[in-house]
């Protein structure tokens, strides 16, 4: 229904446009919700590390377009809302990119090895609390953002030694 509101200075045309906007937005809202739950499958790798050893989480930073370059690499752990490690190469070469590690998660134990294929996030002195699903997000200058996941399983030394003893008895 169209209302005339002379007191606020809006015209009949404004109200008619608002009604048309509702006609467009309301049917699109369920599609937006469905799209949020139908996110494209992200490939997942599985890595196992022992407590105290180093773990290496792969991340494909290769470019697919000629002249393209990596601008930003962000690592997230699924149970945390913010990134835990980043490499920011915006306005600089990737080799001298600014690196950051969350002090509460990795502190100085994490480093990025971009010369490996695929590139690797190294975690020294792995702890049981490092276990989880990590997501690597790579933003490019030209190409589409790429995501990959890594499931890091950390085995405690006691559990590993018990398992080794059990296997040797067989």
Automatic annotation (TrEMBL):
The keyword Transmembrane helix applies. Keywords: Membrane, Transmembrane, Transmembrane helix. SMART domains: IG (SM00409). The keyword Membrane applies. The chain crosses the membrane at residues 21-37. Residues 30-153 form the Ig-like domain. Gene3D superfamilies: Immunoglobulins. It comes from the Eukaryota. It holds the Pfam family V-set. This is Ig-like domain-containing protein. It comes from Lasius platythorax.
């Amino acid at each position: 229904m169209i209302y005339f509101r002379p007191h606020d200075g809006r015209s009949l045309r404004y109200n008619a446009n608002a009604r048309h906007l509702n006609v467009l937005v309301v049917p699109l809202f369920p599609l937006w919700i469905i799209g949020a739950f139908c996110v494209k499958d992200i490939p997942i790798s599985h890595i196992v590390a022992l407590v105290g050893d180093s773990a290496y989480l792969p991340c494909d930073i290769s470019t697919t377009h000629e002249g393209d370059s990596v601008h930003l690499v962000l690592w997230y752990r699924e149970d945390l809302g913010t990134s835990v490690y980043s490499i920011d190469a915006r306005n600089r070469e990737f080799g001298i990119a600014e690196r950051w590690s969350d002090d509460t998660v990795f502190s100085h134990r994490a480093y990025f090895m971009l010369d490996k294929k695929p590139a690797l996030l190294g975690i020294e002195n792995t702890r049981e609390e490092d276990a989880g699903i990590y997501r690597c997000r790579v933003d490019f200058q030209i190409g589409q953002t790429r995501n990959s996941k890594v499931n890091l399983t950390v085995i405690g030394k006691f559990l590993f030694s018990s398992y080794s003893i059990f296997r040797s008895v067989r």
